[in-house]
Amino acid sequence: MRRAFRASLLHCLDDPADDPSAIHWTADGWLVVEDGRIAELQDATVGERPSADEHIELPGRWLVPGFVDTHVHYPQTDMIAAHGSQLLDWLERYTFPTEARFSDPAVARNTARFFIDELLANGTTTALVFATAHRASVEAIFTEAQRHGLRLIAGQVLMDRNAPEALTGGAERAIRESDELIQAWHGRGRLGYAITPRFAPTSSDAQLHATGRLLDAHRHRHGGVHLHTHLAENPDEVRWVAELFPDDRDYLAVYERHHLVGPRSVFAHCLHLEQDAWQRLGSAGASVAHCPCSNLFIGSGLFDLASADRHDVTVGLGTDVGGGDSFSLLRVINEAYKVQQLQGQVLSPDRAFYLATLGGARALDLHHRIGSFAIGNEADFLVLQPQATPLMARRHRSTVDWRDQLFALMMLGDDRVIEQVRLMGEPVRLRGRDALAGQEAGQEA
Length: 445
Fold this sequence. Notes:
Layout: E1 2-12, E2 23-34, E3 37-43, E4 54-65, E5 67-73, H1 87-100, H2 105-121, E6 124-130, H3 135-148, E7 151-155, E8 157-158, H4 165-168, H5 171-185, E9 191-197, H6 205-217, E10 226-231, H7 235-244, H8 251-257, E11 265-269, H9 275-284, E12 287-290, H10 292-297, H11 305-310, E13 314-317, H12 329-342, H13 349-356, H14 358-363, E14 381-384, H15 390-397, H16 402-412, E15 418-423, E16 426-427
């Protein structure tokens, strides 16, 4: 099947911070999808319409690559917006009790179904996901993602201390099960595996060493597994790591000593790092997930995007549900902009859009597959309605500049902006509404 979609087109081919011409806008264009991949881009005002089995016209809509969430906890869906706690207390009061429930496969399956629906309703088409310490939690999220055709990376959480026995008691088994899960799921369809130690305080040296060996064993399997963990989120956490690992120079060094820092290593947060640690992350080719909604909600601190840029650290955006209070990467962009404002830095509309799309794809080392409308990429894309609410419609009409309209969309938008989601070119039915409802404004020929 070859389909041609007509609307405004927006995507990035590079980081606009490095090359301002890297963001591409076509006010009236055709996006042609063939066999689930991007086949052609064409200005609709020049030449004849492209050949296709279907021509789908979407006037007033924007087509953009699907959003990429580089850090989110699916088991924490039911504790989102929990009141009044910072990181370490948050784990004890909310996270550990919630995750203990996932010993029941039925809980995992039910939550996975809701979680995937919520991702898609908010326009997220690729996600790097924490599961729990239970094998069933990983199998549930992979099964649900595969059912939808969603590109998703997840892994079993590794902990062997400083957490309840219900989550740490099977530490040796968890390493063995992680190996089995990698062999069963990694590279299966659009799924990938992330080896997932929660963070340094909940893993002993022995477990981190075993984690490093597991990572080395599968580093080249189907493009390589990922390493997914947390780093320097909270000042108390940083001090605790220094007490637990007194011989290491800093928090990052704990991971370095166990060979966990390199390409396809994704570290969430990174709020309290010295410049030397930023430099080492950049040199190693590791990536960072910036999670401003969570950082503000839990009171962890402000992300230093300028330091990441200075040391060539690849940055993506993460919702970090349930510390984050929204599944929407538009809400994440909104808070990311404010975080930079508070530090005297400016996040441009172009750069913010890049971070949610191609930047996230690069952080996951998937930019050769997703994140842009590059020819041959997988056709995961969104149909956006930039006038989804009366306020947005009024703001949209107040300017003809697309960058101003983009910024307003990102600041004012939420899931109501997401009119359609397509995975590999195929429509996804969004919970509670028809994924093709937006075609009421267009015609198929």
